Amino acid sequence: MKAQPAEEIANDALAQPAALTGRWLELCSRHLPVNSENSFWRLSRPTQSSDPEQGWKLHVSGTLLTACDALERLGPLLNRLDVQFKAPALLTYVARINAGIHNSYSQIGKLITVYPRNDEEAASLARELYGLTLDLRGPAVPFEERYGPDGCVYYRYGAFRRLNDEKISIDNPASHLRHPQGHLVPDDRCSANPPSWVTSPFPKLTSTVTETKKSPLTTTYHVFRALTQRGRGGVYQAVDSSMSPPRLCVVKEGRVLGEQSWDGRDGRWRVKHERRVIASLRKSGVDAPEIYSTFQLDDNYYLVTEFINGANLMELLLKRRRRLPVGRALRLAAEIATTVARIHSAGWVWRDCKPGNFIVTRNGRLRPVDFEGACRAGKPDGTSWGTAGFVPSDRRPAEKSREFEDLYAIGSSLYLLLTGRLPAQQPIPITTLRRNVPLRACEVASQLLANGQQLSAASVSTALLRIAEGLDSVSRGAAPEHLCAAQDR
Length: 489
Description:
Number of helices: 13
CATH architecture of the largest domain: 2-Layer Sandwich
Distance between the termini: 76 Å
Strand order of the largest sheet: 1-3-4-2-6-5
Number of domains: 3
CATH class of the largest domain: Alpha Beta
Strand content: 15-25%
CATH topology of the largest domain: Phosphothreonine lyase fold
Largest sheet: 6 strands, antiparallel
Shape: elongated
Number of strands: 18
């Protein structure tokens, strides 16, 4: 079977996401009829008393764009053999699984989970599933062995269900395996090594290559800490040994097929895109991280940038229990607005402006990071992006620009800096949450949260700096009644 080009798959999915969603529901009703109310999963059949409690699990990896094809091909075989298997109840849940942050990192790629009844069936099914899905692709499943040199079938030995004699608690939510001697041992989902008492029924991959594969990650950039880890890739702190003396750096990984969206863009595309954005912004004077290098490894793309020493602004707020002096809060918000204004002047919309994406340097400056979701001001991106609390609930279509999203994010950041909390859909007035906040600052925040009507990032920066300067003058004399909402008591 000839694989459909990725570009055609992406175009088809972008044109008809509703059709794919409907197709998934129809396939689930046909092959996965068991679905309890509000369940994340659908099952092919109820668990039977003869089903084993543990064994070799098979996972077929997939994305939003390949999920339907995978279930349509595998469902009839597994139903005919009466092998229990499961898949997400909704196609949108596939995106949640592949993000690796809503469920857990170890769940990435687990589109279809199959529960063979014995080792022989596991080996036979793996071979058949591999042949049926050889032209499909999905993200790599963490901590599992891949069946065959390519394809999207993975396996590990683990628990099929919770055991009746398990002691489950909030402090001990993990599932367990039963040792041949009868006692329970933890089922470690973050290890690819099977228990010592089992033997793998799967053929071992042989390779004629005996020499260690060299890459920049083994010769130049020595990773020593993971800063973040999710489906589309990790962000790591590393030492760049190509310089004398060695310097700290950040290695950002874009994984092939990682968190692939409806339009076909995955982690690799995102990091390549971020490199283009950063290069453009730095030419325009935006103080984004300096790019040191890029390279590819195992189809993944890596971007190496400057390590900016300091904590992000959100961490600073948490240390201060989310309360900063009003003047300091206004100046920080003004600096955020100034950065956004420069990004807009460079022809970009950030779409991920938030305190967590500003590093506070030792001299107190704010430096922006993370530009995967940026889009050209004149070419608005229809794909949702951003962080909850910093994006407007009204994701209205934008024919010319999405700058209103950045303006809302400035308003949300200002609100957070002044009150210590994010605005709700109907924000509580700032004056109710904190005294001694200038009325004009409250008005600016309200305008920004109302989608920035008649405002620009540059005008917001100017306004906030003037308000902060007014507070400085007031602190040297009496506070005019019109300036402050209320005086601290």
